[in-house]
Amino acid sequence: xxxxxxxxxxxxxxxxxxxxxxxxxxxxxxxxxxxxxxxxxxxxxxxxxxxxxxxxxxxxxxxxxxxxxxxxxxxxxxxxxxxxxxxxxxxxxxxxxxxxxxxxxxxxxxxxxxxxxxxxxxxxxxxxxxxxxxxxxxxxxxxxxxxxxxxxxxxxxxxxxxxxxxxxxxxxxxxxxxxxxxxxxxxxxxxxxxxxxxxxxxxxxxxxxxxxxxxxxxxxxxxxxxxxxxxxxxxxxxxxxxxxxxxxxxxxxxxxxxxxxxxxxxxxxxxxxxxxxxxxxxxxxxxxxxxxxxxxxxxxxxxxxxxxxxxxxxxxxxxxxxxxxxxxxxxxxxxxxxxxxxxxxxxxxxxxxxxxxxxxxxxxxxxxxxxxxxxxxxxxxxxxxxxxxxxxxxxxxxxxxxxxxxxxxxxxxxxxxxxxxxxxxxxxxxxxxxxxxxxxxxxxxxxxxxxxxxxxxxxxxxxxxxxxxxxxxxxxxx
Length: 478
Ligand code: ATP
Ligand code: MG
Fold this sequence. Notes:
Layout: H1 10-26, E1 30-33, H2 35-42, E2 48-53, H3 57-68, E3 75-77, E4 82-87, E5 90-96, E6 98-101, E7 110-113, H4 116-121, E8 131-133, E9 142-143, H5 148-154, E10 156-157, H6 163-169, H7 172-184, E11 187-188, H8 190-194, H9 196-199, H10 208-219, H11 224-233, H12 236-240, H13 242-245, H14 261-274, H15 279-287, H16 292-295, E12 297-299, E13 303-305, H17 309-324, H18 330-341, H19 344-348, H20 355-365, H21 369-378, H22 385-409, H23 420-427, H24 433-448, H25 455-468
Parallel strand pairs: 2-5, 10-11
Antiparallel strand pairs: 1-2, 1-8, 3-4, 4-5, 6-7, 8-9, 12-13
The protein binds adenosine-5'-triphosphate (ATP) and magnesium ion.
């Protein structure tokens, strides 16, 4: 029989042996189960250990903690029959084996005490139903009623009971199937996969918090495009994130097509991942072309255009973040800014790259300039190697220009060299719109390269512009 004896760390083994001793004392069978067992067998880092026993989980937790050390704090929820403690950096959770039945309108089951078999039956996938026996002779043996080991070896996601029943009971499992397939690079078994489409609308009974949690887990994998293709092909994406699903498709008029923006977006997303992008840069990739369907026009004799999709897309970001329950904070602002600016570096390369255009980009992108350039690089996805070469070279040129201008003008974290206070003092003003006008003249003067980014030139410029708009310089007290 398969055993995990050689796979657990000494630390984990020590915990498991003490669970076994406590369970023997109570005369109840106990098991390690679920994600812990799966990850152990896959050699993925262990986060926490889940223990199930055919009896009181709370009592087993207390007894185990007592055997491990005198001063472990056990927290428990009497209503749920669950208990947990931390020991040497490992979270250990305990629960009595459960049997579940479901009502249609909720994914929260009615729970009764059950056997280990009942408990394994209610798990979502065969690879998540594996258990390790922790009793006497059997200690360390795998309990595998659904051939989860074979599925683990062959890389297959499959439900233990019929997929329709499993997904209907708790529709979140449809998303978990896709998430695990993406995280582990597993295949979803055919009938399991087929069962999702007809039940896709059932996802609506799941809370948005749980849905976004699964989406973000997909976004954070090495190849998120896999997950999004599954979400699209099963129809789930159309229900949970219709704006993204709408990117799919190619309109055709008089032999003019355009690229499929869904698959393009996925390529950009994978590219961002390959370049080390974090969660929010990944979201910027997902949303960079989100307004293309809304702005798509066919221009006679010219082809498809998407004018303004950057600005319209940026305006969509807060709505999408709200609907998906992503945070409405500076992360949202970051994504919005990148969507708004994502065409700028590339469009610069089409004209002459003027210093003034570069300065404006530096000031607008500010601390997010590197992230923006990374997104732009990831956005080059043409199948035509000649085009890729050309765009990449142009972007390189823009980067070089940015470095030159930055070094010369020190524009990052730009603060105007002349304050509003000084303007008011110089012209004897109280706060009024003229102060803003002068400030703007100075800013524009610097960005256009009429004056340098330094105090003296800006001061002279302020006097000149002030006089031009009819202000007078008041004598300053020494
Ligand atoms: P991860 O921790 O990476 O999210 P996991 O499989 O460990 O993955 P948890 O949410 O920690 O997921 O759940 C632990 C175990 O509980 C799972 O392995 C599975 O056996 C069971 N489980 C969790 N959620 C469900 C669910 N919605 N339906 C059925 N079983 C579930
Ligand atoms: Mg887990």
